[in-house]
Automatic annotation (TrEMBL):
It is found in: Periplasm. CDD domains: PBP2_NikA_DppA_OppA_like_7 (cd08512). Belongs to the bacterial solute-binding protein 5 family. This is ABC transporter substrate-binding protein. Residues 83-428 form the Solute-binding protein family domain. Its main location: periplasm. It holds the Pfam family SBP_bac_5.
Length: 537
């Protein structure tokens, strides 16, 4: 790989407006590295369309949200099953057993200096529920939140055994300051969906209790955070955090080597390999629970061929999964059978090999012949002009185009703006396949599985049978882990057979970090990095 040498002017233009915030020193070294009060992260944040916790449904915003907001509980990297205290110090079944009672941490202050109370918690969840955005689907089991007293709240569930605790750890379930949201158009009642106006303000500010507060967001430019001196864990190590948008991995590599950023998130395997001899850098790794996949419509109006299950199965057997994992990703990935990532209950590498698709070109050709398409057909694959887990969607699309051509399927690639792609996909207007991602807002099998049968199925034109929905609910509520694992294997088998979603890889995070950073706690819980716990050496 050739890395271009950039002038100071070119680098400033590449890095965008943030160059004005972090001027370069003689020799090209960034001021960020000479001042120990600013943490600079280099990452592709082109998918950021909002920083309102209730409305976000993208890959990178949770990193920012987790820095600006706290939740009732949190998950730690070494234990993604058992929630740990955060704004709640304890939780127990509420009287009657139809929900959970949370005792709130006393003395917690918002960035405004106001003290958090149970009313703020109720407001936050009332707004979340009544906005009826995607985040509400994550907590669909919550019927209502009741204030018991100033430091206690009850969550009343519509299904007492619904898995909810780990879901409440996700940044979308952030606690916001009621008084501030009301000042900026926030609405808590049933009219919130149509009347809430707080999102615009929240896109440039925050009203949380987190270690940092949002002060500015420039789309495809940067996100600026300021230290919250009132944080209940104590003030974080840095006065400021700059999350700098760098869409090109070569630019990230150059920036982290020069010291213009402390960490680079989207390097490709070849670039990671070049860092082994650099004494100023290290590579921090962590298996993620994310996955990158291709969603395939079965809407005959979009593509009549894809309406046939045999054709979708043929595509599943035409893809060179091992080539994606080993050649494109350098082995820094796993592949699950379906939407349950390897490492959660019922999903292992052995299950993936047994249940998931594997490349078999002869079988793919036979399936196409059985579908009356022995000569192949044409289809589209759309993707965002961005990178994920160290690989661009364009490279991934080109790989699939090559794989499918081997069985006579002619693929048109359609690169799109990330926001437009999201709109096309969520509204079910895809013409063929879409390359996209799923990162967990929280670690819960039910979140992944319910998303498939309730939302993602509609996008691809799958009319989910009642027995599949019932299986999802039964597996989610099964209290015996062994029995639940068997149910989840059955669920994966049925979802794979439907052949609307093809898991391409489950990445292992590989983040280039300068050795001037001591603690850099990665997490697979859905927000990548616990920014408030980063420290300098």
């Amino acid at each position: 790989m050739t890395v271009m040498s950039l002038s100071r002017r070119d680098l400033a233009r590449l890095l965008g407006a943030s160059a004005a915030v972090l001027p370069l020193l003689p020799g090209g070294r960034a001021l960020a590295q000479s001042r120990r009060d600013t943490l600079v992260l280099g990452i592709d944040i082109s998918d950021t369309v909002t920083l309102d916790p209730v409305r976000q449904a993208q890959y990178t915003p949770p990193l920012t949200l987790a820095a600006c907001y706290d939740t009732l509980m949190t998950l730690e990297a070494n234990d993604l099953v058992n929630p740990k205290p955060s704004l709640a110090t304890k939780w127990e079944r509420r009287p009657g057993g139809d929900g959970w009672r949370f005792t709130l941490r006393q003395g917690v202050k918002f960035v405004s200096g106001a003290t958090m109370t149970a009313e703020d918690v109720k407001f936050s969840f009332d707004r979340l529920i009544n906005m009826k955005d995607q985040t509400q689907q994550y907590i669909k089991a919550v019927e209502r939140v009741e204030v018991v007293d100033a430091n206690t709240v009850d969550f009343v569930l519509n299904s007492p055994n619904a898995p909810i605790l780990s879901i409440l750890c996700n940044p979308g379930c952030a606690i916001l300051e009621k008084a501030v949201l009301l000042q900026h158009g926030g609405v808590q009642g049933v009219e919130a969906k149509d009347q809430d106006k707080a999102t615009d303000w929240l896109n440039g500010n925050s009203a949380g209790t987190g270690p940092y507060r949002l002060t500015r967001w420039e789309r495809n430019g940067q996100i600026l955070l300021q230290r919250n001196p009132n944080h209940w864990r104590g003030a974080p190590a840095f006065e400021r955090v700059v999350i700098r948008h760098l869409s090109d991995s070569a630019a990230q590599l150059l920036a982290v080597r020069r010291g213009d950023v402390h960490a680079a998130f989207n390097l490709i395997p070849e670039q990671i390999a070049t860092l082994r001899s650099d004494p100023n850098l290290r590579v921090d790794r962590l298996p993620s629970l994310d996955h990158v996949y291709m969603a395939l419509t079965q809407n005959p109006a979009a593509n009549p061929a894809l309406a046939k299950k045999e054709v979708r199965h043929a595509i599943g057997h035409a893809i060179d999964y091992d080539g994606i994992l080993n050649n494109l990703l350098g082995g820094a990935a796993l592949r699950a059978a379906h939407f349950l990532p390897i490492g959660v209950n019922g999903s292992t590498e052995a299950v993936a090999r047994e249940v998931g698709f594997s490349q078999d070109l002869n079988k793919a050709r036979q399936l196409l012949q059985a579908a009356g398409l022995a000569e192949g057909f044409e289809m589209e694959i759309a993707y965002g002009q961005a990178a994920v887990a160290g690989i661009s969607y364009q490279v991934l699309g080109q790989k699939l185009q090559s794989d499918l051509a081997r069985v006579g399927i002619r693929v048109r690639l359609n690169p799109m703006d990330q926001v437009n792609l999201r709109t096309v996909y969520t509204q079910g207007r895809m013409a063929g396949g879409v390359l996209t991602f799923w990162n967990p807002p929280a670690v819960s099998n039910d979140l992944w599985a319910s998303a498939v049968v309730e939302r993602v199925a509609r996008r691809v034109g799958w009319d989910v049978p009642a027995e599949m929905t019932a299986l999802t609910k039964r597996a989610a509520e099964e209290q015996d882990l062994a029995k639940a694992a068997d149910l989840w294997v059955e669920w994966q088998r049925k979802a794979v057979d439907q052949a609307n979603h093809f898991i391409l890889f489950q990445p292992i995070y590989q983040i280039a970090v300068r050795n001037t950073v001591k603690d850099f706690p990665l997490t697979a819980a859905g927000w990548q990095l616990d920014t408030g716990k980063v420290t300098l050496a």
